[in-house]
Amino acid sequence: MNVHDSERLAGLLESAGYVPVAEGSDADIVVFNTCAVRENADNRLYGNLGHLYPAKKKNPAMQIAVGGCLAQKDRSVIRDRAPWVDVVFGTHNLHRLPVLLERARHNAAAQVEIAEALEVFPSSLPARRASQHSAWVSISVGCDNTCTFCIVPSLRGGERDRRPGDVLAEVEALVAEGALEITLLGQNVNSYGRSLGDPGAFARLLRACGRVEGLERVRFTSPHPRDFTDDVIEAMALTPNVCPQLHMPLQSGSDAVLRRMRRSYRRDRFLGIVERVRAAMPDAAITTDIIVGFPGETEADFADTLDLVRTARFAGAFTFKYSPRPGTPAAEMDGEVDPAVVSERYERLASLQDEMSWAGNRAQVGRQVEILVSEGEGRKDSETGRLSGRARDGRLVHLLVTGPHAEDGVVRPGDVIETVVTRGAPHHLTADGPLLSHRRTRAGDAWEAARSRGAAGDRTTGEGTAGDGTAGEGTAGAAAGAGRPAVALGMPTMRPSSPASR
């Protein structure tokens, strides 16, 4: 969701006449879009602001803006800790960034503006998308849940749903521009429609996406197990373009811990959903989130989590050490777990999940897969001569372009190829055999057109490389021009251990 917001911020700035700077170049404006889920996000932000101080001192005209969840939480604290910041804005007023930058410049004074309620739905704002072939589509903002560890509801507000017609109109517009894949976004996607008085709307939305001509892949994140219903499973299984992939946060395998987390489901319900999803879609890749060391977690509680991980056989998991967030009920709970114990448990869980992921990926060897080729997901592609992309179940695949179909032309980001998996590693697949097919797509045409216009070198990005265990940190760049300052956009967020995300 922060990546999506970053694309909106970049689009707003471009609409106002700003131009991204090339990577490594000096920027006149730097914008940080922040997360507040874990304490590490605070440390990253203030560390990055400290690194920028010498540049700001050297060039006082440079502007620094901080927005997003951490800005909503810390407000004037950011200016107290980093008085060289020029603009602070929150989660509810993204659209105000260009005005605040202009006002700060005109008045030669910092601007701090935090709205208490959503003013403009982010999806109505212009966007500079990081990809021609894949796009995020927000179906709701905010959250009505009261998980004791989570600060998001206090920063994003209660759930507000977009009308289905507006969502589908955006999906159709994206497909018309060349997108082949969309990901529906919400803090709790399967409660979608509740604020509209239509609690079964999410399953119908999935089916409606299946009727959009030219849309080849539909994904969504994240559902809450409490609200996961069989009509959603049926819609996933019977809608051909909905991918056989499910990311469903578990958080803990212990009923006692889930109760303290106020998660409103128990392990049996979670495993029941997993069982029904696999019955309907045997090849579905299921991923999750897990917190280690929640207050009061005992060794028996942790053993329950390990047992559930073995039973569920997740394709991947984001695993986190519990991070207390001031203002949440969990931050006031007794039973803090010794950090050394948390670290030891974390390593055991990560090791077990790596085994599960590796076993699942080895089982893919010999299978024919359809891959949507992407750009930037394989960090070593330039060294290995490979391309990278995602299979329909979301697994990352690194591949060599060989065989007769390699002569069809250069395989471009956005093109679709079919090949056979030759190796399974813990967090990715490799396909080094000949291509079975290569389909040039409208998305590939759009990528090629953008590259020919020189846009490939100045594309704003806010997304980390999912396959190597990072999520959401990035910078942006292009050359200055059009009479406006050049701008760089960064997004410090959380660091998970495996390729999935909430």
Structural commentary:
The chain is of the alpha/beta class and 502 residues long. Helices cover 33% and strands 18% of the residues. The chain is built from 15 helices and 21 strands. A 7-stranded mixed beta sheet has the order 18-19-16-15-14-17-20. The protein has a 6-stranded parallel beta sheet with strand order 1-21-2-3-4-5, with helices on both faces. A hairpin with a 4-residue loop joins β15 and β16. α8 runs parallel beside α9 and α12 packs parallel to α13. The chain is globular and about 65 Å long. It starts with a helix and ends in a 12-residue tail after the last strand. The C terminus is likely disordered.
Describe the biggest sheet? 7 strands, mixed
Task: Report the count of strand segments.
Answer: 21
Give the strand line-up of the largest sheet.
18-19-16-15-14-17-20
Structural class: alpha/beta
Task: Estimate the helix proportion, in percent.
Answer: 25-40%
As residue ranges, the low-confidence spans are 455-484, 491-502
Mean pLDDT: 88
Treating each run of at least 4 consecutive H or I residues as one helix, how many helices? 15
Outline: globular
Tell me the span between the first and last alpha carbons.
Answer: 9 Å
Radius of gyration: 22 Å
> Strand share of the residues?
15-25%
Features:
alpha/beta; six-stranded parallel β-sheet; 21 strands
Quick description:
It is built from 15 helices and 21 strands.
How is the secondary structure organized here?
Blueprint: H1 2-15, E1 19-20, E2 29-34, H2 39-58, E3 63-68, H3 69-74, H4 76-81, E4 87-89, H5 97-107, E5 111-113, E6 134-138, E7 140-141, H6 152-156, E8 160-161, H7 164-176, E9 181-185, H8 201-209, E10 217-221, H9 230-238, E11 245-247, H10 255-261, H11 267-280, E12 285-292, H12 299-312, E13 316-321, H13 339-362, E14 368-373, H14 381-384, E15 387-391, E16 396-399, E17 416-420, E18 423-424, E19 429-431, E20 437-439, H15 442-452, E21 486-490
Parallel strand pairs: 1-21, 2-3, 2-21, 3-4, 4-5, 6-9, 9-10, 11-12, 12-13, 16-19
Antiparallel strand pairs: 7-8, 14-15, 14-17, 15-16, 17-20, 18-19
Helix pairs in contact: 8-9, 9-11, 12-13
